[in-house]
Amino acid sequence: NAGVTQTPKFQVLKTGQSMTLQCAQDMNHNSMYWYRQDPGMGLRLIYYSASEGTTDKGEVPNGYNVSRLNKREFSLRLESAAPSQTSVYFCATRTGLRGNTIYFGEGSWLTVV
Amino acid sequence: AQSVTQPDIHITVSEGASLELRCNYSYGATPYLFWYVQSPGQGLQLLLKYFSGDTLVQGIKGFEAEFKRSQSSFNLRKPSVHWSDAAEYFCAVAPVGGSQGNLIFGKGTKLSVKP
Question: Which of B102, B104, B109, B110 to mutate to test the interface with A (most CBs of A within 10 A)?
């Protein structure tokens, strides 16, 4: 998915450290999302942004903050990382067209020790 | 509550055999329906989607899915599996007219392919 770029791809953090996952899209989509994926859990929505300047909580927002910097960029911040936040994080964007098709980045693997 | 169920956690099929992955949903009305595939270490790729109309939809890589309203199901099929189809498959639903377009995912079915 060349249209959605996530950085970094891999990161190891110590408990209590902070970090920001970056996401940028060149698909000119209004909506952007952050999901986390855990074994046997599927994907769960953390936060989303329906448009530039707006953000809303998803299913599992605790421990995270987000910023929709502009139409292209949507960052996810862990202020004080916990081992429970060890996961694979996916950024995604949605077309404005019928059907709510969502396109995913390639993921960021985060380990908190 | 809205939910998506993929009853099979792991399926193994022989190369060349047919495949059917099951998906059932619980929703207030007929939602939009999707199948995504995830190869190891990769993001999710859209295989196909159903909005309305013909209940048999064709997707990429030779996959198809059939929507059955009476069974609240959207099963994914492929007539002949290739080794490269080994991956994890996710069924997802989205509310029709949902303002945020949030997808609800099943927990996935991992497909292994025997030579």
Answer: B102
Across the interface, of B9, B42, B105, the residue whose CB is closest to A43 is B105
How far is it, in rounded angstroms, from Cα B79 to Cα A78? Answer: 45
A99, with CB counted inside 10 A (0-12, 13-18, 19+), is: middle
B113 is written with which tokens? 């392919």
pLDDT digits 0-9 by tens, A21-78: 999 999 888 889 999 999 888 889 999 998 888 999 988 999 999 999 899 999 999 9
A20 is written with which tokens? Answer: 């920001």
Residues 49-78 of B with CB under 8 A from A: 49, 51
Chain A nearest-CA residue for B4: A42
Longest dimension (CA), chain B: 45
- pLDDT per position as a tens digit, B49-95: 998 888 999 999 999 999 999 999 999 999 999 999 999 999 998 87
Contact in structure between B93 and B33 (CB atoms under 8 Å): yes
Q: Cα separations (Å) of B54 from B47, B57, B68, B92?
A: 17, 7, 11, 19
Closest chain A residue to B88, measured at CA: A42
Least confident of A29-33, A76-80, B4-8, B12-16: A29-33
- Contact A107/B at CB under 8 A: yes
